Amino acid sequence: MNSSTTTSGLTFDVQLSPQRKTPQERAALLDDPGFGTVFTDHMVTIRYSEEKGWYDARLEPYGPVTLDPATASLHYAQEIFEGLKAYRHPDGTVACFRPEANAARFNRSARRMAMPELGEELFVGAIETLLRYDGEWVPSQQSSSLYLRPFMFATDVGLGVNNPSRTYLFMLIASPSGAYFSGGVKPVTVWLSEDYTRAAPGGTGEAKFAGNYAASFLAQAQAVEQGCDQVVWLDAVEHRWVEEMGGMNLFFVFGSGDDARLVTPALTGTLLPGITRDSLLKLAPELGWPTEEGRISTDRWREAALSGELTEVFACGTAAVITPVGHVKGPGGEFTIGDGTPGPVTTRLREELVALQYGTRADTHGWIRTFA
Ligand SMILES: *Cc1c(COP(=O)(O)O)cnc(C)c1O
Fold first, then answer.
1. Nearest-CA neighbor of 135 among 146, 126, 124, 143?
2. Region Disordered: what ranges (predicted)?
3. Rounded to an integer, what is the distance from CA 367 to the centroid of its chain?
4. Separation between Cα atoms, residue 281 and residue 365, nearest integer Å
5. Domains in the chain, please, with CATH?
6. How far apart are the C-alpha atoms of 194 and 233, rounded to whole Å?
7. 272 CA to middle of ligand 1, Å?
8. Rounded to the nearest 5 degrees, what angle is found at the Cα of 45, between the Cα atoms of 29 and 32?
9. CA–CA separation, 306 vs 246, rounded Å?
10. In a 3-state reduction of DSSP, which class is residue 223?
11. Global pTM?
12. Whether the CB of 205 sits within 6 Å of ligand 1
């Protein structure tokens, strides 16, 4: 079946999948989807060329992409992505959390990688189109959601290395996901990596660039070898300023109760500016906890944890929302945060954010965008 649907000025050609899952098959898949392995019936594709700009927008059956072996992105890694979720609200509607912020970040990543910007309307229009046809894939189970993965890569064919590609493919795929960490919110043990760095000044750390992840796997493997769950990245120059944990931003809680205050590493250009991070910087003061963007060294982290001044540490990001850090290991030894269990500030902020995302708390910030 072919039809078309106009969203945000660009017309999406709609080709429905002849192999759409039946409601029973879908329900079985949504029962325990895990993370990132089950995909919906359709995907969005939009092409770009220098002459035409963005064109040929489609909703089509989910499936493989055929590429010439000399496709530029396979050789020179011009590829960026985003990650956000669609949530089922109690009234049955489907909503995203701050998709405009993802659109803006996608375009900042594009600029850094010498790729064309997509425009917020087209980015959100792609999400709207996919949710219109695959909205039934948004699970209603607690802590479940439909993870949305927009991405863009270079499609010029040729090995010339001096110039960015002149053609690109934007795609949006969607994957129902259950709770990110199975077994509930468990504190993680982290490894302070002194052997590897994620991002250097002037580099690509601020962009959601695929290569940043490729470069992180060995450090993550080293963390696992050390009996840890996640790697903590330190700055590339002095190897002592804390930047991020894996693919999540970090928060440090000093003091407790009404006197608690939060510190998160400042965006120096080597950190990924998380939308969850930004949201918590606004939410925490509303709950009575001041926030500060600052600098934390590994020495200060250890000393403050040992003295009890530092009471909680957590990581935050779209996929896992908020994850407490219970234990820290590094080449110089190890220590525990608080008593190693999730602290009250961590737990309260997680509840608040999750309630906003799932629509059980009124959205006073204009962060929720409802679709169908
Ligand atoms: C995506 C990402 C984050 C978290 O960003 P959110 O917008 O909160 O999901 C943090 N660090 C890195 C390296 C990331 O890629």
1. 146
2. 1-23
3. 16
4. 13
5. 2-177 (3.30.470.10), 188-357 (3.20.10.10)
6. 8
7. 6
8. 10
9. 24
10. helix
11. 0.96
12. no
| pLDDT per residue as tens digits for the range 100-123 | 999 999 999 999 999 999 999 999
pLDDT (mean) for 61-84: 97
98: Cβ below 6 Å to ligand 1?
Answer: no
How distant is the alpha carbon of residue 17 from its chain centre?
Answer: 28
Å from CA of 317 to ligand 1 middle:
5
Among the listed residues 70, 62, 99, the one whose alpha carbon sits nearest the alpha carbon of residue 167: 70
Two tokens at 134? 């695959």
Give helix then strand counts, H and E, for the chain. 9, 19
pLDDT tens sequence across 269-290: 999 999 999 999 999 999 999 9
CA 273 – ligand 1 centroid, Å: 7
**Alpha carbon nearest to ligand 1 atom 13, residue:** 247
Ligand 1 atom at minimal distance to the Cα of residue 316: 8
Task: Give yes or no for residue 274 CB within 6 A of ligand 1.
Answer: yes
Average pLDDT, the chain: 95
Structure tokens at 188: 């993680």
CB-ligand 1 contact for 272 (6 Å cutoff)? yes
Rounded CA-CA distance 221/214 in Å is 12
The DSSP code sequence of 167-182 is EEEEEEEEEEE--SST
Question: Which among 162, 226, 157, 234 has a CA at the least distance from the CA of 195?
Answer: 234
248 lines ligand 1 (CB under 6 A): yes
